Amino acid sequence: MQYRTDPKSGERISALGLGCMRFPRGVLGAIDQEAAERIIARAAEQGINYLDTAYLYPGNEACVGAAFEHLGLRDRFLIATKLPHASCKKAADLDRYLDEQLKRLRTDRIDYYLMHNVTSPAQWERLVGLGIEAWIARQKERGRIRRVGFSYHGSAGDFSTLLDAYDWDFCQIQYNYANETYQAGTAGLKAAAGRGLAVFIMEPLLGGRLADKLPDRARRVLDGAEERVLASAAGSVPLDAPAAWGLAWVWDHPEVTMLLSGMASPAMVDDNAAIAQVALPGCLSAGQRAAIGRVREVFEQSNRVPCTGCNYCMPCPHGINIPGCFAAYNASYAHGWFTGVSQYFTASAIRSGHPRLASNCVRCGACARHCPQHIEIPDRLVDVRRRLTPGPVGAILSRIAGRADDTGSGRGAAASSGRGGASRGQGREC
Ligand code: SF4
Ligand code: SF4
């Protein structure tokens, strides 16, 4: 495993971190504990020493805590988890959440503690008003929190303001070859590193869209690249999959301390660890960077809605599979219209007799405020409807969907969604 140094603490951190948000789940939605433990155990075997979870990932902290106890691995990992700051209405809430997180994780300390999904400096200022700076100092003194940072999904301009608003230890940003100028972007990466912060990367493959879901034309660019081996002083590894290219592109940046990958199986841990071993800063050749530049151009032509499939906007009270709709829409540009329509019909449960189409959106607005990609979801669902169910097809399907509503299934969808008000969509922030 390649290790990089946290410039502020001197801690050695594996270049590859384990993101726990996408642990496998069973049919009823609960995390598959045994599968998660196999992934954590393999990560430890591969030398990964950083693990990222969050209060708001359902069942996740408890799963990690139980895994550490079963496997006896607590001291092999640096644990990162996140404060659901939007739910902190008074100073006592800070203690209440941290107490609960320590209990769930079955530990006495959080190594890297993040303000979860900060999108504007005003959110931090509100916490300052609750006394969070003195609170952090007390927790550090007690050893309950070792380092403090934030995960970020706001604009590039606000990012610099936020960096200067506190003496942060680290930050976590969305970064990949399709997002160089999106959110914090390359400018934010360099600004944070320039201030001496450790920079951790999330969404290095854009929720898989730069991996297995890469458009066919973009994949052909990679398959046809002349230099399909990654070589460095640490060895060599074949660049035989889009994911390998995407991860290597991130690690190529010397400002990156660690990259989080939501690995869903031990085999995926092995694959990514093999690349991490070789992908030192500056590992890509000029030709390989140029190939990725061509892939970026092709990808942007089909990336009509920048949805990463994170599910933070779900559930929709009207039963619409929002990320499924956007995945189908993008697929219609990446892989052809018929492929997109086929995916849309599956995502909309057309065959169930109770379809939930993009046209079922009533613009209630419950979803968009939770989207870290700032997608205007109701407007973009109109685009989905227009492209994937044009003319009479749309009219017929809308009539079917309307009948389903008449049967009361729409109410059932709302009732069964377990909606919990403002805190609901934050449940899967990153
Ligand atoms: S705005 Fe539309 S998609 Fe969003 S939650 Fe409301 S009905 Fe669902
Ligand atoms: S919250 Fe945004 S990015 Fe995440 S699944 Fe919903 S629309 Fe996509």
From TrEMBL:
Keywords: Iron, Iron-sulfur, Metal-binding. GO terms for molecular function: iron-sulfur cluster binding; metal ion binding. Pfam families: Aldo_ket_red (PF00248), Fer4_9 (PF13187). Coiled coil: none annotated. It comes from the Bacteria. The keyword Transcription regulation does not apply. Residues 405-430 are annotated as: Disordered. PROSITE patterns: 4FE4S_FER_1 (PS00198), 4FE4S_FER_2 (PS51379). Residues 353-380 form the 4Fe-4S ferredoxin-type domain. Transmembrane segments: none annotated. This is Aldo/keto reductase. It comes from Enorma phocaeensis.
